[in-house]
Every structure is written in structure tokens, then in C-alpha cells.
Write a structure and sequence with these properties.
Two copies of one chain form a homodimer.
Chain A (H helix, E strand, L loop, with lengths): L7 E8 L5 E7 L2 E7 L9 E4 L4 E4 L1 E6 L22 H14 L3 H15 L1 E9 L7 H12 L5 E7 L10 H11 L3 E5 L8 H15 L2 E6 L3 H17 L6 E5 L8 H14 L1 E4 L11 H6 L4 E2 L17 H12 L4 H10 L2 H6 L15 E4 L4 H7 L5 E4 L2 E5 L2 E2 L2
Parallel strand pairs in A: 1-4, 6-7, 7-8, 8-9, 9-10, 10-11, 11-12, 12-13
Antiparallel strand pairs in A: 1-2, 2-3, 5-14, 14-15, 15-16, 16-17
Helix pairs in contact in A: 2-3, 4-5, 5-6, 6-7, 9-10, 9-12, 10-12
């Protein structure tokens, strides 16, 4: 799929987040000029009149699982664990489901087009690496990524869904996944899953150092056990000089603790440059977004699972995710709604270390146009009538792909 | 606005919630026959082919405030209370906002069309009655209701937003509101607002008895104070023989208590026939939907405030509300997603004592058609491409009014 770049286009009467009405000139896929509306000198640019609609940077989908969704495939009813939640039992359920599912590449494409249709043009996907599936998932998703490279930027996390120490051979597979093209190494509840925090983190950070990879660890452990591991990850990040290149996903423990402990944890995370990913999960405490942001922590978000063996929810819409983050965080004021929006845009771009992000001269012209007066209204109304532009070319409208 | 009834129409190939594919025949606004698809004898009916789309009864919007929303009017940024949440301060903020807002009838119509567009054709709205606004809100909303009577069934609650005992003259105004046409009398935190549980409930239940009205009380008080008032309301309901005609809205206290106390409360509410309304509020504990349903309690839902002085959220979409109830309740299995859907359909109809509700021969043909395989998928996907039928005639499509 090759995107034919519109080489020189002026998007007239665009409403920016600060309320200003501007003309956005795009040249060779990047914003070349941003000028007050109606005051731009005429030239050869093709004109697209946005009639005052809101223009925002494309959303950042910071946590998704491209390999395990059944979106667009047959409905697979959720079955609970037999005796309370158990990751290993869920993984076994997932293996049975995947064996009966449509080809992985097809399911991944369904999810990608759902996300792009909603306005996400950059994404971090975790991809399962374990002794049973080996590198099959990674190889498949790498091929899908290649086919969609003109449409969406995807970074991949080699994700040890079956643990590392408790699943012999996984460390070598993770190393191989990084060599194949995964940019980050993942982890999974070092304490509750592998029962060895230091041993698990030795492998994760060791491979990250060896391959120059980033780190993004799934951490579901709650309470003080979760907090302890957050501290360990932050300490290693700082010691290894990996500030800005490490994230903890979910970090439920940060949602369980008292204000004083949270303040300490926030300062530590900010100093270590460790980002926190939360999807404002359904019936679960989650990291306090406002308090962490106040401490200087980069908080980003993602859909997480979309209609898979873990839960049936997920819509691949990061604007709706901003709504959920705001709703569940009690964000009512405009600046709070703007903070929720920042989580799915600029903060996400920072966590994913994206280059040339935003509505700014020189940035890539990846943007979303929608009927909203301003960002707070967009966050509460979640308008679905959006047009998504990649490098200045329309790629989706009203949730449907245009090419 | 008069709806021209299509006197005899067959909606062919309708997918019902039980998975069956049927033809729905509508005669003079009601379902006259439901027969297996393709096996219906030909007659003079006009044919609408639903091509296997899901058909569900129109949603029940069980708690809304038609008088106070700014939906469709200017954006009014939220301002927090100066020293923690305070109902009186919020009411004062609301009064300032309303003084500057578009005419109430216009704002009420905006909300009604939003709700109908999303598929709600029955509604319970609270309408403010207090010493400062008197009966103005009630009179305005009664007139709006009259204009929309062919489109949506609306029942009104005379709502003492400023308290009863602490706002002299309110009891008389509430009585007058019931005489004017409100079907229910409301209440507001008898303990924390009026500081007199029995005194407040004496007025509420006294007027309900005097006028043969139903009761729907706003109860935000949490913990044991909330639980105590729930018990008092249930005891009075039973003593007065008002089973099935009383509801408690919000009832946050039920979300705070331990399993054993909850079980006792659930049994008491079920025996007293007191329904519980929850909108699965943002950052707040709320009544446990599954446990209450198991106890036999009717749990219904509503948008509550839509973009008003209390919060900026709300979309008037009861299918999205079912999604939120499921998401926040940890409902993952099909039967759980179906329970969330029941809350916004049949349970709502029971709480509102609607006659002739549902997809059944003899019931009014108020239904919603949407592209979903079944109810669980509808709850997680929240498809917006719906067609809404009132008495067998299409009134809205893709969220937009057709007439």
C-alpha cells in the first residue's frame, strides 16, 4: 500500500487547540507553514476548506496486542477462570481460541484499520513471544507492519506472555525477536508470574542494553508488591541511563496507594524518566493520571486488548479512550479534559519517542479533522465523523478506510 | 409533530436477541405478528428488509434532567466548588449558568432529539422545583413533553433541587407540580441536605400518597448514612403498599458496603419493590449491578446530567451507557453483557412501569435496528449506525432525526 502524497496542499480554516483559526500548508507530507486563516498568500497549493473544524494531531495508540484480537473474526464468548483470575489459565484459553481463529495477519489488519479509521497513526503493539509460539507471532506482525508502513508507524514490543524464567528458552527467543526488528523488550509481572523480581528484570534490562532496545513491562501486581516493582524498574532505568526509554504498562499498584507514597513514587518515576501506560481499565483501580502528571511523569494510553481472550471490550478509538480516562478520573474542568486529550496525543508521542509529532511547521502532517469547537468538547462528545490525514493525504473518513 | 403511522408493515429478516431470524409485522403501530423469517404469508403489508440486522426494543432513558443541560447551546466550562463538593454551591453555579443560557425549551428539545436519535423512546426526567424557580421549569418541560408526545414517552419527577425542609414553600410547590402533571415526586439526600431523614421522607411519601404519584429520590449520601436512608425508603415503600412505584437514584452507599450488608440490603429492596438507578458514574463507587440483580432488585439506568453545571459528560446514548455499566462492573461474559443491556431496556421498562414494552406481539413497535450479530456484540461495539422506529415508523437514522 503506497500513499500518494499530495505534494502541496493548503488546509484552510482549521481550528487549532488554542482556538485560533489558521491555514495549514502541507508540502511533501509535512506542515510547511501555519498562518492566520485567510491571510495566506496565494500560490499553487490545492485548497481544502476545513470550515472551522477542529484539527488535532493523529492519536497515539500506546498499548495494543495486534496478534491476539478477534476483531472482525467470529465472536468468541468470554469464559471466566475456574477459580479466580489466573494468567496461565487465560493464556491457555487464548491458545485454544487462536487455534480456531482466522489467520493472524488478517486479524491484525482488522485491528489496524479500526485504529487508523479512528485517527491513530502511531502505535506500540506488544507481540507474544514464548516457548509455545516461538517467533511466529513476531514474524507475522513484522510482515503486517511492513505492508502498512505508509499508513501507520508501528513499534513492536517482544512480549513474554508466558514469563521468562518460568519458561525456559524465552530469553533467547526475546533476544531473537529484538534482532528481527522489535524495538522494545517487554516483561510480565516479575514477582507474581516469575516469582523473581531481580531475575526477571536482569533478563529484560540485560537484553535492552545488549540490543539498544526500549523497555515496556506489563505490571498488573497491585498494592505494595506493584509499587515495589515500579521502584525497582525506576532504579534500574536511572542506573543504566535509560531515561525516556522505559515504560510500565498498567501499574495497577499506583492506583492502590496513599497520597504520600504516591508522591514519592511520582517523583521517582519522573526523575527516572519512566512512563506509565494506563487504559483506565473497567472495574480496577488505576494510576492517578492527574497526580502523576503533576509530578512530571509521562502518562500515555492505549486500547490494550480489543475483543480477545482477555475481555470483550475495546474499540480502537483513542479519543474515546481520552473520554474514559477523563470520566474515570473525575476530570470535569477544561484543563482536565485537555490533560486527558494530551495523554492520547503529545504525551503518547513523548512516551513512544516519536519524531516530528504535532501540528507545527516541520512536523509530519498526520492529523485528524472533526466537528468540535475545541478539545474539551471533543473529549466529551467523541465525534465519530472524523477525517484522518496521513502525511497530508486523507486515509479514512467516518471510520472507514479510503484506500 | 404528528407521526403518520405506517398502518401495515412487515420488517423482514430481523435478528432477535435470542438469535432467531424473524419477520416482524406491525399493524397500526403495534407488533401484530412475529413469525420465522421467510415463512410469513404474503399480504398487503409494505416490506422493509432488515437483512439480518439486530432488532431490540427502544432504550429506556431512566434518569435525565431536561431542564438544566447546555447540550447544543454554548460551551460552559466547568468550575469546581471552592472548598470541596457542595450541592448548594453547585446549584448557585447552575442558576448563574441558566440565566445566561438559551431558552429552556430549546435546550430540552436538543436533549430530546439527542436521546431519540440514539434510540431512547421512553424517558424519566427530573425537573427542578424550588423556591427560586417555582414551577417555571415544570411548566416549560410539560409543554415540551406535549409537543414530543408522539415521538417519546416522558414521565416527569418534581425534583426539589433546593431541598424540602430547608427551603420553605417547596412542599406546596411539589404538590402543585404533581397536580400540573408530574407523575412522580423526587427527593434529595434527606440526611445530608435537609438534615432530617424522617421529616424529608414524610413530605415525599405524604405527597405521593395524596396524589397517587410514584417516588424517585436522589440519594448521593455514601457509606452507612446512604444505606440507612435506603433502608428507610424501603421500609416506607413496603408499609404504604407502594411496591414497584419507588426508586432510589444513585444510591452510592450501596457501592461502599461489604458483601453481607449488601446482601441484606438487596433482599430488603427486592421485597419492598424499590428500584435502583445507576449511571455507573465516572470516579465514584456505585451500586453493584450484578449482586442487586441476583437479589431480585430492578436496576435501571440513565444518562443523568448531560453537559450541564454538574459535569461536562453525557451523550444521551443508553447503549453506550450499557457499555459503561458493563465495563465498570467487570462484565465480560455474554450473559453479563446481556444483563447490562437489560438494565437499559426491559429493567428500565419495569422501573418506569411501561405498558406494552418489548419485541412481542401486541407490544408497541418502538424498536432500534443496528448492525450487530447479537446483544453482547452490540454492548461492546456500540454501533452508531442505527435506525430508530416509533410505533413502526422510522424517526431517526445514524443519530439524526428524520422528521
Amino acid at each position: 500500500m503506497v500513499i500518494a502524497l499530495t505534494t502541496h496542499t493548503r488546509f484552510a480554516n482549521a481550528r487549532l487547540a488554542d482556538g485560533s483559526l489558521v491555514d495549514l500548508t502541507v508540502t511533501d507530507g509535512r506542515f510547511s507553514a501555519i498562518t492566520p486563516a485567510g491571510k495566506t498568500a496565494e500560490d499553487t497549493a490545492a485548497i481544502v476548506d476545513l470550515v472551522g473544524q477542529l484539527v488535532v494531531p493523529a492519536f497515539v495508540e500506546g498499548h495494543i496486542h495486534l496478534d491476539t484480537s478477534f476483531y472482525g473474526d467470529a465472536w468468541r464468548p468470554h469464559i471466566p477462570c475456574t477459580n479466580g483470575f489466573d494468567v496461565r489459565e487465560r493464556v491457555a484459553f487464548q491458545a485454544r481460541n487462536l487455534a480456531a481463529a482466522a489467520p493472524m495477519a488478517e486479524r491484525a489488519r482488522n485491528q489496524l484499520e479500526l485504529c487508523v479509521g479512528n485517527g491513530s497513526l502511531a502505535m506500540r503493539s506488544h507481540v507474544m513471544v514464548d516457548a509455545s509460539v516461538g517467533l511466529k507471532h513476531v514474524e507475522t506482525i513484522l510482515a503486517v507492519r511492513e505492508k502498512y508502513r505508509d499508513l501507520i508507524d508501528i513499534q513492536l514490543v517482544a512480549f513474554p506472555q508466558g514469563g521468562i524464567l518460568s519458561s525456559p528458552g524465552t530469553a533467547e527467543l526475546l533476544d531473537e525477536a529484538l534482532k528481527l526488528g522489535c524495538e522494545l523488550i517487554g516483561g510480565l509481572d516479575p514477582a507474581s508470574f516469575d516469582r523473581d523480581v531481580n531475575g526477571h528484570l536482569d533478563v529484560v534490562f540485560g537484553l535492552a542494553q545488549k540490543r539498544g532496545a526500549g523497555v515496556d513491562i506489563h505490571l498488573h501486581d497491585g498494592g505494595t508488591l506493584g509499587l515495589f516493582q515500579v521502584e525497582e524498574i525506576a532504579a534500574r532505568t536511572k542506573a543504566l541511563g535509560m531515561q525516556g526509554n522505559v515504560a510500565v504498562s498498567h501499574a495497577y499498584g499506583l492506583g492502590d496507594i496513599q497520597a504520600d507514597a504516591l508522591e514519592k513514587a511520582g517523583d521517582m518515576l519522573a526523575a527516572a524518566g519512566v512512563a506509565i501506560m494506563t487504559n483506565a481499565p473497567g472495574n480496577h483501580a488505576f494510576p492517578p493520571v492527574a497526580a502523576l502528571r503533576r509530578a512530571g511523569v509521562t502518562v500515555f494510553s492505549g486500547s490494550d486488548n480489543i475483543r480477545d481472550s482477555w475481555w470483550p471490550y475495546g474499540d480502537g478509538d483513542m479519543l474515546n479512550r481520552a473520554n474514559m480516562i477523563g470520566y474515570r478520573s473525575g476530570f470535569y474542568e477544561d484543563h482536565e479534559l485537555e490533560a486527558a486529550f494530551d495523554v492520547v496525543t503529545h504525551a503518547g508521542a513523548k512516551a513512544l519517542r516519536l519524531d516530528g509529532y504535532g501540528i507545527a511547521a516541520g512536523a509530519r502532517a498526520d492529523f485528524v479533522v472533526m466537528p468540535a469547537e475545541h478539545v474539551p468538547e471533543a473529549v466529551v462528545a467523541v465525534p465519530k465523523g472524523r477525517t484522518v490525514y496521513r502525511a497530508g493525504g486523507a486515509v479514512a473518513k467516518d471510520g472507514k478506510m479510503l484506500r
